[in-house]
Every structure is written in C-alpha cells, then in structure tokens.
Amino acid sequence: MGVDERVRERVAANLKKKGMSAAKAKASGTKKAKKEPAPKNEVGIRVGSVLDTIYQALKKGSTREEILTALKKAHGDRDPSGMEKTLKIQIYRMPREKGFTVIRNKETGKYSIGKAAKKVAKKAKKEEKVAKKVVKKDAEEVAEEAEA
C-alpha cells in the first residue's frame, strides 16, 4: 500500500465520520480557504505588528522610552521586558533588513529614519501606482472583450 493510498483512506475515513462522501465534500467545497496575506506598510512590515509600531515611531522621531511607551500602549498584552529587548535588537536589525537607515540625534537621544527609507517608501508607492494602472487596464480589456 503506497503513501497516496493511505492518505486517501484517511481522508475517506474522516469524511465518513462527518457523514460525507468524497464527491459530496468536493461538491460542497469543504477545502480550506486560503488566507488573505496580511497587509504590509511601505517597507514590507506587517501592519499592526510590534515591528510596525517601532517603524511608525521611528518615522516620527522618538527616543527609546517613547518607542517603548508606544509599544506598551499598542501591545499591552505582551511582556514589557520582552518588548524592551525586542526594541534594543530591532532598532538596529530592522533597518538593515528592510533597507533604510536609522539616525540617532546625540543631543536629544531621538532615533529617526534617514533618507534611504524615504527612497524605499517612494519606490514602493510608485510600484503600487503602476500595479493599480495595470489592474485597471486589465479590467478595461476584460470589459471590452465581454462587450465584443
């Protein structure tokens, strides 16, 4: 008995428990629905995540304490000491991985995003506009074909 046959038998047994045949399950569409990908911001960080909170604070220009306060406010269910450790690591790692620079003002102690991040954001917006134009053009072509 091959692996495929064993898998088919398990699937059939599970469907039998639910009171369905394989054909009925296929017809009713009981397959798992694909999840929508999480929305991402201009540099590719998932919106609403801890990293996004750090990124948004960096965009405004904030000290570590201000960023930590924002993290506690946005993610109150998490351990504050863990968020502090995450902040210490990510404030330097995230820019390197996402392609922007973080600048620290020694006088004020504030961290902010450098020019490279603005270029990345501008490029992402430009790509988004191009993608929207392509989708719009494709929709117009489909409409024209439907009319013909």
Report on the structure:
It is a single chain. It contains six helices and two strands, in the order αααααββα. With 148 residues, it is mainly alpha-helical. The chain has two domains: 1-31, no CATH class; 50-147, Arc Repressor Mutant, subunit A. Strands 1-2 form a two-stranded antiparallel ribbon. Strand 1 (102-104) and strand 2 form a beta hairpin. The radius of gyration is 24 Å and the shape is flat. The protein starts with a helix and ends with a helix. The mean pLDDT is 79.
Structural descriptors:
6 helices; mainly alpha; 4% strand; Arc Repressor Mutant, subunit A; 2 strands; 2 domains; 148 residues
Topology, pairings included?
Layout: H1 3-18, H2 22-28, H3 50-60, H4 64-74, H5 80-98, E1 102-104, E2 111-113, H6 115-147
Antiparallel strand pairs: 1-2
Helix pairs in contact: 3-4, 4-5
Question: What kind of sheet is the major sheet?
Answer: 2 strands, antiparallel
Shape: flat
CATH architectural group of the largest domain:
Orthogonal Bundle
> Would you tell me the structural class of the helices and strands?
mainly alpha
Number of helices: 6
Give the terminus-to-terminus CA distance. Answer: 54 Å
| Residue windows where pLDDT falls under 50 for at least 5 positions | none
What fraction, in percent, of the residue positions are helical?
A: 55-70%
The top level CATH class name of the largest domain: Mainly Alpha
| Number of separate structural domains | 2
How many strand segments?
Answer: 2
Please write the string of helix (H) and strand (E) elements. Answer: HHHHHEEH
pLDDT averaged over residues: 79
Indicate the proportion of strand residues: under 5%
Radius of gyration, whole Å? 24 Å
Widest sheet, order of strands: 1-2
CATH topology-level name of the largest domain? Arc Repressor Mutant, subunit A
